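Hi U.,

Before I forget, here's the chain from the pilot set. I'm dumping it here mostly so it's searchable later in email.
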Amino acid sequence: MPRFEPLSADALATIEAAADRLAAEVGVQFDHPAALELFREAGQTVEEQTVRFDPGFLRAQAALAPPEFSLRARNPQRDLVVGGDHMVFCAAQGPPFVRIGDERRDGTIDDLEQLLKLTQMTDALDTPGRNILEPNDVPLDVRHLVRALAATRLTDRVWAGEPSSDFAARDCLRMSEIVHGSLGDPVLFANVNVNSPLRFDVRMLEGLLAYAAAGQAVIVTPFLLMGAMAPVTIAAALVQQLVEALAGIALVQLVRPGTPSVLGSFLSSTDMKNGSPAFGGPESAMGLYASGQIARRLGLPWRSGGGTLTASQVVDFQAGYEAFNTLLGAFLAGANVCWQSAGWLEGGLVTCFEKFVADCELLDLLQRQFTPVEVDEATVAFDAHVEVGHGGHFFGAAHTLERFRDCFWRPTVGSTDNFDRWTRGGSLDHAARAGERWRAMLEEYERPPLDESIEDELCEFVERRAAELGDPISVRA
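Structure:
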């Protein structure tokens, strides 16, 4: 489908020139000696922990990354293609709290496992990512092991590794190696967040360096809330985002040229009355459109800044329109990777079960809506007009009877009942129907097959590493 590209050629040139100036005169801080040494060897100016870049250097490094690449899943039918006209969708990532109905509490490993099952049950999502929800009942230093094992056991999809330390990254790489036999092809995502403005902290750099050395896909994502971590204008935020993302991708390419890299964005605004993040507004939508246009100009796969983002506390009209506006922006902008696409609530503090399935319905709707219309002799239906004639109806026409089961998109949560039927059914609102939907999905869940010897080796590795990290756990089924 056509992409919405609002920036003129002059505007694009101005942004690129401003990015060159910001990168050269202010630079980017890297809190890791290996990163600094790689940039120094590449001829860039390194002063203490700040790197200042020659004009054009970042774009030249980014050009080494492939414009399109594949990720191998343990089920070949779940392999992913990233870049070009392809879109990949991932559930919410990172919230510490869960909401089920009226209950809001700390997330647990049981909650995470149920969300992984829901991910496996929907074709609207492609990957569970790294952490749909934080399992707060699992010790922090072994969570990456438990999350990775759960994603491997409960889904047969590509998942994302932990990027926030060297040892966690290496553990995830080893677990992937156990499953796939080797890491010759990319099998993992790693989403590396920039500590905006203009700083990569040591923990994220450890992850970036480890995944890049292993040739795994690295998403470099600035986290920009305009007014807080970026200036208040869209143009300035786009410049900062470009510098931060390209600086990370340049480092990936210095570690291992040709490593799959994704230009990430998370660009939204701040409520200037109270300092809280705001989502789903026109500024973030425009930022999405422009970010996609800039990424295509660079020939890089692009991760959008959402997602079904919302600041709402509950599954209400605000949650719906903010989520839809952000998600629609990602479609119009041609996002290749769309994180935070199901379950996000309360500015990212909460993963909500009801919103998870409601968001999957939005995803399914837009995936259908952005499928090009088929126009041929069969679809223009001349014979149906001959059969029905003037003033008739098409319910019983042969053209209708051949197609009625799947001719239109059908909601799984939304209701088309008349008022009397809706009342007899309990007068359930959208959130209540979503609650019924996710429970029904879990009843239908079947665990995908996993070779017993591979599962045994994974469990042995996780238990051994957990003991070495000081928090012994048992993960045997």
